[in-house]
Specification:
Blueprint: H1 3-15, H2 24-46, H3 52-71
Helix pairs in contact: 1-2, 1-3, 2-3
Length: about 70
């Protein structure tokens, strides 16, 4: 899955979560914030589990996902 596809998928998941009553723009903004927190947690949790060479690829992918989330 490309970083752009993953970004859209994460935001879409968070759009479903109990934000009834918020306008669409506000829901999208909250969903993006949640997705960014999710990606940060993924990055933090994997620091100790990835091999050095694989960490570089892993970190690059998830940082690209963050960039794509911010573009949405």
């Amino acid at each position: 899955m490309t970083p752009k596809e993953k970004a859209k998928e994460l935001v879409k998941h968070f759009m479903k979560i109990g934000m009834i009553g918020f306008e669409l723009k506000a829901r999208q903004q909250k969903a993006k914030q949640c997705a960014l927190i999710c990606v940060d947690e993924i990055l933090l949790s994997q620091v100790k589990y990835c091999e050095v060479g694989k960490w570089v690829e892993f970190e690059k992918y998830w940082n690209e996902v963050k960039q794509e989330i911010n573009k949405l």
